[in-house]
Amino acid sequence: MKLTRLVLSGFKSFADKVELTFEDGITSIVGPNGCGKSNISDAVRWVLGEQRASVLRGARMEDIIFQGTAKRKPLNVAEISLHFDNSDETLPISYREVVVTRRLTRAGVSEYLVNQQSVRLRDVQDLLRGTGLGGEGGVVIEAQKIDRLLSDRTDDRRALFEEAAGIGFYRDRKTTTERRLEKTLEDLRRLDDLISEIQTQVRSLARQRGKAERHKQLTEERFGIVMTLARHRLAQFDAQLEALNTQEQEINDTLPRDRELLTEKEAEREERVQTRATTEAQRNEIERRLADRRLEVGSLEGDLQLASERLKNSMERKARAREERRHAEARATQATREKEAAAEERSAASEARQSVQSELDLRASDEKTTRDRLLEQRDRVRKLGDSLQERAETAGALAVESEALERDLGDLRAQEAEATKRSAEAETLSEQARLKLQTAATELGKHQHTDDQASTELERARHALAGAKGHEAALLLERRAAEERRAQLTARREALDALERDHAG
After folding, report:
1. What is the pTM for the complete model shown?
2. In this structure, is the dihedral angle defined by the CA atoms of residues 277, 283, 286 and 288, taken in order, positive or negative?
3. Other CB atoms closer than 10 Å to residue 340's CB: what's the count?
4. Which of 74, 379, 389, 404 has its CB 3.0 to 4.6 Å from that of 68, i.e. a possible disulfide?
């Protein structure tokens, strides 16, 4: 295996595409400091899989892309290709020329290609392992590696010697295998945990399986029972459907007759309404006449009552006058008696005076007392005289009032006769009005009876009409319900027939 060419494009200071050819013998690159000699070794290290930007003398991996100058714009892609001659089949690949390419964009996208086929970094490392090539291989020696060769640390020298001896491939495979074993052990421990968890779930699932099988068995039994019940119900529905069809036919047969009867009832109702309107007009006329007669009777009764009141007042005044006359006569009799008593007392007083005068000399000591008694008797006589005069005047006034009462009584008797006459006339008119009222009431009763009969017939017709309409609506509803049930039963029967054809039950 031999390196034949190195192609650089956009890597560090190589803005343009540069191709370096390595012929037989020694190929050397000579130039002053800063001309880019180290960039070639960095390019080889980078294309072989170097991942550390510090080894390539940069802060970031994107720093290896050409950054541009005052006269040139920066580039967005860096690409390097190594061409190997694989005529001796050192590389385990069936190509005579092997091209290893690495490409990096400024967006951070990195690609590895082998003969223009996209591969992984691991694939590149496995391809070149054992050949001395690689990021840590001894084919690329720089100042740092010289320091490591001369270092006192055996680990640094061992890595170089192992790589030069070709055992790095086995070391890496050992490391990789150990990591895989550790990962496998970890997976096994995890698998044990999963197995224990799955065993728990398996036991639970076993119980659920038993329940599911039991449920399936019960479901099948239930389905068989439901199918049997469905068949019975279907038979019942067929019977009900036949009954409903029969009832529908009967309804269709009786419906025209009911409609004709309804039309006749409507015509009768219209006639009765007209008759009722005529009867109402007659009744209103009779009621108007009756109201006029009642007004006349009320006026006559008022006049009769007024005459009765006047007669009653006259009788009361006459009775009151008689009572006053009787009291006046009694008072006159009493006054006559008191006058006679006063005369007797006066005569007695005269006799007493004579006896006093005769006994004046004998009873000188009692003179004052006798004089006082005399004065009292005089006062009493004067009072009796005044009372007698007053009673005489009262008797004269009562006589005058008795004459006036006699005149009023005559007037009242005349008014009573006139009122009796008017009362007889009013009674006659009232009797006539009562007869007319009875006749009108009889006619009104007849009309009312006719009206009641017409109203009753009208109500009956209305009830019959409402009943017929309700019956018709109910029959329509029953018919619609029957049609819906028939459609449902038909659909259900078809579904059950389909299930039975599929042997689902």
Report:
1. 0.35
2. negative
3. 10
4. 74
